[in-house]
Amino acid sequence: MRAFLKYTWVEIKLFLREPMGAFFTLVFPLVMLFLFGTIYGNEPDAMFNGYGTVDISIPAYTAMIISTTGIMALSITMSAYREKGILRRLRLSPLQPHVILAGQVVVIFMMTLAGMLLLILAGKLVYDLRFDGRVLDVALAFLLGSVSFFSLGFVLASVMPNARTAQVVGMVIFYPMLFLSGAGMPLEILPESIRNFSKYLPLTHVVTMLRGLWIGESWSLHTTEIWVLLGMTLAGVVISSLTFRWE
Amino acid sequence: MSSIITVGGITKTYGETIAVNDLSFSVEEGEIFGMVGPNGAGKTTTIECIEGLRQADRGEIQVMGLDPIRQERQLRPLLGIQLQQAHLPDNIKVWEALDMYASFYDNTLDWEDLLEELGLMDKRGTTFRKLSGGQKQHLFIALALLNDPRLVFLDELTTGLDPHARHNIWDLVQEVRQRGKTVFLTTHYMEEAENLCDRVAILDQGKIVALDTPANLIRDLKISERISFQVKGEWKSGALEDLPGVKNVQRQGDKVVVLGPANGAQVSASIVTGVVNALAEAGTQFSDLRTEYPDLEDVFLTLTGHQMRPERSE
Ligand SMILES: Nc1ncnc2c1ncn2[C@@H]1O[C@H](COP(=O)(O)OP(=O)(O)O)[C@@H](O)[C@H]1O
Ligand SMILES: [Mg+2]
Q: Chain B: nearest CA to A53, how far in angstroms?
């Protein structure tokens, strides 16, 4: 346990020292929040069923953070660790292989959580954030969304030959998804044709689920999301456990 | 003494390349065992098979009676390993790396003492990215010794170090052995093997060509002298090869190396006079002539017919 705590603590420090990762996880979502919060405020809006822009943006940006950390941070870190032989050095210690990987996931999860909590804090303090859901439901949805994207990140880390490719492929997946899934901007403002396409993006399901539970909808409205994300997690775990390489 | 490592007939191929070809040897508890040979000889492949990092295609390996791959979990805490190629995260600080790795073991040495001994104390707050090559090497040696392992593997332990740092590491390795530990090292510096190792296996093209103490290896050469000199332009070795007592004449670029005389031959006197006379008779322009005791490099040359490190003659 002491080993695991030391290891994850060092990895958290390393995460925060990496300017890109820390910025996109912790700072950029806040910048977006303040930017659109300043432009649109948080007045109730008929387009969002009486919720304000900030109210609906926070669960959406949370989904954005999940995809940033899963597709980008996790996969790039893991491929770089493999490419440089950092994983190999870690494996020489008595630390168990599954503990090494679990540590990475835990650190990325905590950073994702920190990103969300910062958004909530800013929303509460500055925009009188409205929350009509149940904390436990949102927490579970957050966990499911995170796990599904982390497993996607592990698939990328497993099949990409090096960190550079992982980064490029990650960006190719990330950016279109960010804008077309409702994570970066509300789906409501996108044309119908794009919204039809959005249904096929995994991130859309995270956004829909988080936004729904945020305003107090019941889980029963989100069975599709649950199955899609559970399926994605399972597929990701299977694929990456078959293809993951330590060196 | 009992064998801490036994290797029985291991072979490892990469595609067409036979990296390690049917190697068998054992390492005794408490010795400094060295594996020397040129780049590509198969040293890293061998050491990493023993460490459980690679799997040999054929053959048996036992480390402290355990199988390094199937019983990896039991072995890990007992081994200290410095890899030929290794990396830590760019932004990790020296103290964080040591503190973190120390937490992975039940028993460790005081890492501050290790830093002190390795001259890294003033770098404890420096990130890995900012260390020089030699400092990184020192850090990896510290990590290998951190858990006070019963068996230490050091792959190319002093590559890239200046002579002072190299001697420092040698002292450290001797100290480790004095505390009853076993050291398995590889090097492509013959001088290092000769100075540091109790026994040396000379590896060439995946095979052991000789294995003994450095003193025995040199004695078995039956050569007591190495004469080297520089020549310019056209030059034929014939006249020297025919001299009584001369065992081997090699030319690399402008440098010529003559080995002899064979111990026990009638010619027990130095062959220097003969060599110089022969050169003078042939009207050869030579310079920088010196005589030295033969070393492991000459053992390698004699056994394999080629130079260990071509750059030595440049
Ligand atoms: N992972 C690998 N893939 C392919 N060839 C390899 C690999 N590792 C080593 N080799 C080859 O095996 C031979 C022995 O290499 P190595 O064990 O690294 O030698 P040394 O450590 O003595 O320099 C070389 O010809 C090298 O190119
Ligand atoms: Mg090597």
A: 38
Query: H helices of A68-214, where?
Result: 75-84, 86-91, 97-127, 135-159, 163-180, 192-198, 202-214
Ranges of beta strands (E only) in B115-176 are 151-155
Q: Which residues sit with their C-beta closer than 6 Å to ligand 1?
A: B 14, 17, 19, 37, 39-45
Nearest to A14 among B92, B104, B105 (CB): B92
Chain A contact present for B40, CB below 8 A: no
What is the per-residue pLDDT across A78-95, written as a single tens digit (0 to 9) for each?
999 999 999 999 999 999
Mean pLDDT of A59-82: 96
Structural domain boundaries of chain A?
2-243
Domains defined for chain B, CATH in brackets: 3-218 (3.40.50.300), 223-304 (3.30.70)
For the CA of B206, the closest atom of ligand 1 is: 14
List the single residue in B with minimal CA-CA distance to A2. Answer: B103
| B261 prior amide bond cis, ω within 30 | yes
* Option in B76, B89, B96 nearest A93 (CB): B76
Judge whether residue A42 has pLDDT over 70.
Answer: yes
CA distances from A221 to A180, A209, A217, A226, B62 (A): 22, 9, 7, 10, 60
Residue B103 touches chain A, beta carbons under 8 Å: yes
Ligand 1, pocket-test mutation among B11, B23, B39, B44, most atoms within 8 A of CB: B44
Provide the Cα torsion B236, B241, B246, B249; round to 10°. Answer: 50
Q: What is the pTM of this model?
A: 0.88
pLDDT digits (tens, 9 = 90+) for A166-198: 999 999 999 999 999 999 989 888 899 988 999
What is the predicted pLDDT for the residue at A113? 98
Residues in chain B with CB shorter than 8 Å from the CB of A89 are 83, 86-88, 143
In this structure, which long-range contacts are made by residues B176-182, counting pairs with CB atoms below 8 Å and at least 24 apart in sequence? B176/B145, B176/B152, B177/B30, B177/B31, B177/B32, B180/B30, B181/B30, B181/B148, B181/B149, B181/B150, B181/B151, B181/B152, B182/B4, B182/B5, B182/B27, B182/B28, B182/B29, B182/B30, B182/B31, B182/B32, B182/B33, B182/B150, B182/B151, B182/B152
Position B268 scores a pLDDT of 53
Spacing, Cα B208 to ligand 2 middle (Å): 15
Q: Chain A residues with CB inside 8 Å of B91's CB? A: 13-14, 17-18
The pLDDT-based confidence of B109 (bands split at 50, 70, 90) is very high
* Contact indicator for B89, A14 with CB cutoff of 8 Å: yes
pLDDT tens digits along B175-184: 999 999 999 9
B89·A88 Cβ contact <8 A: no
Cα–Cα distance measured from residue A57 to residue A141, given in angstroms and rounded to the nearest whole number: 16
Prediction ipTM score: 0.91
Ligand nearest to the backbone CA of B157 = 2
Contact B88 A81 (CB under 8 A): no
| CB-count exposure of residue A227 (10 Å: 0-12, 13-18, 19+) | exposed
Coil, helix or strand for A222?
A: helix
